[in-house]
Design goal:
Tryptophan halogenase; alpha+beta; Trp_halogen; 15 helices; 509 residues; 34% helix; FAD/NAD(P)-binding domain; 3 domains
Length: 509
């Protein structure tokens, strides 16, 4: 058995830096440490990183922790702030707001799911809102924050959180982490790819003539998709029929007040606008559909609505929503924008990078590249992409807005069959289809469904086993207690200043 790894991968080449490249490099350096696997990353200072993925979801913190990175140090050095939820404005109708919180909503009543008990209460005329029982929402709405681990014996312990980050600072942080663990960084632009007769990539050639060979290549070259697209010509599955936005205009602004602990996602006439507050600045963007709005009009709209002096931008990012039919083909694995793109409405871009590398480590091949490993990798990643696609399409196709051509046209969009089936099941009695290792759990679907006005026709009959007086008393008591516990907390800005103030920020010229 001692020679079992003679056929093992000895050299991993990552083509491209940015968030995708350095997340992959950091994970590879951590898990391949002292195994004899060399990791080399090729990137060029000439090619700018898009740096839009500045809002994360809770699994991103699992990544940081799994690498042994100190969370406080990471927050301080990446100018991060906390994120408890996404605040959706004007999505169902103009003037309406709802939250998609992280963590739990309420807790079981007896043996029964809180949401089903709440549905029964609503059927009996109870005046509460679902989010009255979501600790992350109540904190977010009051601009308060405390990590749930510091509130173990209170209702606040059910909350969860993610981070708002500076994508370029995160890439730099993870670069330092990876290089300290042996990753070799090579500066240069890849201009040519040399393949073997069987279609596997043998080496890449850079503009200056340098050649880099490897056993396994990770394509993190962004929308350029040098390996998976230009070399292997892997088919792209276009989802723009259900996700019509195809452009983003982005700008960075000064902070004019303390950062709020949520991402703003405000629906606009032809898409939606985000605001992501960090400790040193805010990120802003307008994701829109060029069929309904020109780039000049989109930029003017964004600049008219943002707060604070513009520090950078506006810059435009064209995109096509979808994914490669296969992300793992031959000895190439596409991770990040090279493999696919789904608009950042639910902050999933960095998560898909982490998942892509996590699954690669799980189904790691040897030099024979057993096709069964690639097939399972592609199946699992396709499930993730499709789950995210469906969750984001949900926000659009359940709108009641008909005030602009964009929103009127969305009324006629036919959702993917998988989403139609989810909606039918949910509308019947509030049930959710469980997937394998789903990213969005029941509270996420319930929050967006309720926020968009999709409520089940009935609650599950088994809930009738609980005396209604017990349900009513639980709701009547827990909402005021939660509200009072939140009122006693420090503000988000105060918590940041006391526990993880950002390192002094040197603004680049």
């Amino acid at each position: 058995m001692q020679d079992a790894n003679q056929n093992g991968i000895r050299k991993v080449v990552i083509v491209g830096g940015g968030s995708a490249g350095w997340i992959c490099a950091a994970m590879a350096s951590h898990y391949f440490h002292k195994t004899g696997v060399a990791v080399e990353l090729i990137e060029s200072e000439e090619i700018g990183t898009i740096g839009v993925g500045e809002s994360t979801i809770p699994p991103f913190l699992q990544l940081i922790r799994s690498l042994g990175i100190d969370e406080q140090d990471f927050i301080q050095k990446t100018q991060a702030s906390f994120k408890l939820a996404i605040r959706f404005e004007n999505w169902r109708n103009k003037g309406e707001t709802y939250y998609h919180p992280f963590g739990q909503i309420g807790g079981p009543i007896g043996r029964h799911e809180f949401y089903q008990c709440w549905l029964r209460a609503k059927a009996n005329g109870h005046p509460s809102n679902l989010q009255d029982f979501a600790p992350a929402t109540v904190m977010a709405d009051q601009w308060k924050f405390i990590p749930p681990v510091r509130a173990q014996k209170s209702l606040l312990s059910g909350a969860n959180y993610a981070l708002h980050i500076d994508a370029k600072l995160v890439a730099q942080y993870l670069r330092d982490f990876a290089e300290a663990r042996g990753v070799k960084r090579t500066e240069g632009i890849v201009t040519d790819v040399v393949s073997r007769p069987d279609g596997f990539v043998e080496r890449v050639i850079m503009k200056n003539g340098t050649e880099v060979s490897g056993d396994l290549f990770i394509d993190c070259s962004g929308f350029r998709a040098l390996l998976i697209g230009k070399t292997l010509d892997e088919e792209y599955r276009d989802w723009s029929d259900v996700l019509m936005c195809d452009r983003a205009v982005v700008a960075q602004t000064e902070n004019v007040k303390d950062p709020h602990p949520y991402t703003v996602a405000q629906a606009q006439d032809a898409g939606w606008r985000w605001r992501i507050p960090l400790q040193h600045r805010a990120g802003n963007g307008y994701v829109f559909c060029s069929k309904y709005l020109s780039e000049d009009e989109a930029a003017a709209t964004l600049l008219s609505q943002i707060e604070g002096e513009v520090l950078l931008g506006p810059n435009f990012i064209p995109f096509k929503t979808g994914m490669r039919k296969r992300l793992f083909r031959n000895n190439v694995v596409a991770i990040g924008l090279a493999g696919g793109f789904i608009e950042p409405l639910e902050s999933t871009a960095l998560h898909l990078i982490y998942r892509g590398m996590d699954f690669l480590l799980r189904y790691f091949p040897d030099k024979d590249f057993d096709p069964g490993l690639a097939a399972e990798y592609n199946r699992r990643m396709t499930m993730d992409y499709e789950e995210i696609r469906d969750f984001i399409v949900l926000h659009y196709v359940t709108t009641q807005r008909d005030d602009t051509p964009f929103w009127r046209d969305y009324q006629a969009v036919v959702p993917p069959e998988s989403l139609r089936e989810r909606l039918e099941l949910f509308r019947a009695s509030g049930l959710l289809r469980d997937g394998v290792d789903d990213m969005f759990r029941a509270p996420s679907w319930q929050s967006v469904m309720e926020g968009m006005g999709v409520r089940p026709r009935r609650y599950q009959q088994l809930v009738d086993a609980v005396p209604y007086a017990v349900i009513q008393q639980t709701l009547d008591q827990s909402a005021p207690i939660l509200k009072a516990q939140v009122a006693a907390l420090p503000s988000h800005g105060e918590f940041l200043a006391e526990h993880c103030p950002a390192a002094p920020f040197q603004r680049s010229a």
